[in-house]
User: Fold these one by one.
Assistant:
Number 1:
Amino acid sequence: MASKSRWADTADDAAVEAKLKREKEEKKRIKAEKARKAAEEEAKRKAQAEAQQRAAQAQAENEAANDDNANRPSAKRRKLTPEPGANEGEAAAKTTTDGESAKLLRFEAPGTGTWGPSRSVENYDKLNDIEEGAYGWVARAREISTGKVVALKRLKLDSSGRAGLPETGLREIQILKDCAHRNVVSLQEVVVGDDTTLGRIENIFLVLEFLEHDLKSVLEDMPEPFLASEVKTLLRQLASGVAYLHDHWVLHRDLKTSNLLLNNRGTLKIADFGMARYVGDPPPPKLTQLVVTLWYRAPELLLGIKTYGTAVDMWSVGCVFGELLTREPLLQGANEVDELTRIFELCGIPTEDSWPGFRRLPHARSLRLPSSSKQNAAATGSVIRARFPLLTTAGSALLSALLSLNPDARPSARDMLLHEYFRQDPKPKHEALFPTFPSKAGQERRRRRETPNAPGRGQPAELGSVDFSGIFANREKEERGGGFALRMV
Ligand code: ADP
């Protein structure tokens, strides 16, 4: 309480002082009221703007989801989410430090459009394991209240002991939440384990639409390869999903047959966004090179490029194309050096003409390549044609283009959709006529041959200075039974 003024000697003085005080308080009250109103107005304005933005975004996504039309121009690109940062680390820093992200587990409740704490996994009954390995756990489950069958994928939590999701998990949720396309798996909600206590979440699960198969298991088990018309149906759907992702500034960075799901109605959907991220145009200057499972990894990544773009996914699409034709992964390198060797044998040796600037890539500086490389058969596409003798001219032109060493020479996913390969006979088979396969995921765990994982989940091999100058001669030797080894220089 204020002490009595030493000047307020008389009753009049006291009255005047009291009046002044009242006036001052009134002014203060009016000022506070004004500030409160202004804050309210500002909040209202912000909420309106956000609602408008959300509505516009939902509409754009809707349009894109419905737009399976291959003729859409590639120049029309929309950015749904602001670029999180110039380099990989920033996104993680942002999501873990700002107040909004601290409430990450308040996701939109399904069907309500409202935000609230994530529901418990106890709302689902586990039916069977689909995949349980060193890197993750996926199960088939049924939502108790609706009876709907879903796939539950447990996210890997930070192994460093810090409470929270690693950056990959945050990105996977964010990107899946933003995506709506018939060839991208849909995320229904995020749920938490029942062992969750206040302030500590032990288990986080993605609730995904369930698909009966993944392409890798189908390819391994099918007695006969896909027909040409079936390869086209699958490839066109893959290109359509990838085009949607790239239009929305998402790089998947781990496209491979085990991440492509297939339902019994012949629909293919891209899954596993654990390696995916948003990029801008131009792409951030420092992106991690440790992406994409080795057998599907583009040569520019193997050569240590720091700024890369959508072409890394298109290389993987080329590898999937080859695998659809033969049922075997196309480039099964034992390590990074061996992977590059196999790539050069299939696609030719890069030259400054075919791939301007490749020499400046970090690991290319120390490569010793054959000088007569321009004449080598692989560079002309004849090795690809010989390896896929049943592929039409248009098909092998598309495959060769996707497997261009120079990333700029690879077609975009939108370009690919327009390729004549899809227009020529045999035409892509209608999805409804697609063959069905017995679903392993429906009854039992999927058992597969070992394949490498994306490098974030394993240890990358070191690419030192490598001498490729003898690879073609060495290959001849190997064909004669002599074996070959690369020399490290
Ligand atoms: P990880 O990040 O651990 O590799 P993925 O998302 O790739 O996990 O899933 C691993 C496997 O689980 C896939 O290869 C597929 O066989 C199966 N799977 C993943 N999502 C689904 C789904 N929505 N429906 C059915 N099976 C799925």
Number 2:
Amino acid sequence: MVLTLFGPPGSGKGTQAEFLVQHFGIPQVSTGDLLRREVEADTELGRQARIYMERGDLVPDQITLELFRRRLQEPDSAPGVLLDGFPRTVGQAQALDHLLAEMGKRMDRVIRILVPEEVLVERISGRLTCPVCGRTYHPRLKPPRLEGRCDYDGAALLQREDDSPTTAHRRIKVYQQRTLPVLEHYRSQGVVSEVDGTGTVEQVRERVIAAAEGRELDAADASGSQA
Ligand code: AP5
Ligand code: MG
């Protein structure tokens, strides 16, 4: 099974992935997390990627695809993967089609999560991330049980370097310009579902799981200011 969580920064891809990996028994592959690991380890790829990530721009396809290919070769990916934040350009989507075909797989479902822009900025600017497990929190919207500490491993929560309001706006713009066209690529394959990403984490989870299983609970209203 190959699923993609598709949506702008702050739409809840990482939050929903946490439940989906348990539900479907496949690993989450987030290119954002893979890239942040390279940056932390100060590798050559990480040093190159950091410049783009700090600005809120996309990292060049060559770097992202190299990391993604390596991850897909790990044995836990064999039953399938839950992609988070990948593919993000039409070039990445085409490369992914080839990689999956080589493995005898195809994209099963692309779940687009729709959230109005003003909600995205509020979520991103308040987000706290666990540096150990990558889980995310928000002081008002999804508070940890103990202030400033991860519920799962007790690590001190941090704010991501690219989570300032200015960079958040830039990332949303980049998503609209460079990532939204990827939807057309998958619409032509008939695998796109759209879900309303507003409401509680649990409400969104129900819609996302229904979409992944091919049951449409409630089609999102794609009009207006949805990003
Ligand atoms: P990446 O790490 O993928 O970030 P992103 O796509 O910008 O998405 P986010 O992680 O910001 O948001 P999310 O949708 O996961 O939201 P979350 O669940 O955390 O990428 C970072 C950078 O890496 C990019 O800018 C780029 O430079 C580079 N990059 C990555 N992949 C790349 C690629 N393929 N190609 C090129 N470059 C790439 O939720 C956000 C907050 O909201 C949290 O605080 C959460 O608690 C809260 N929240 C979530 N859902 C709800 C809800 N229903 N109600 C209330 N609060 C909620
Ligand atoms: Mg994320």
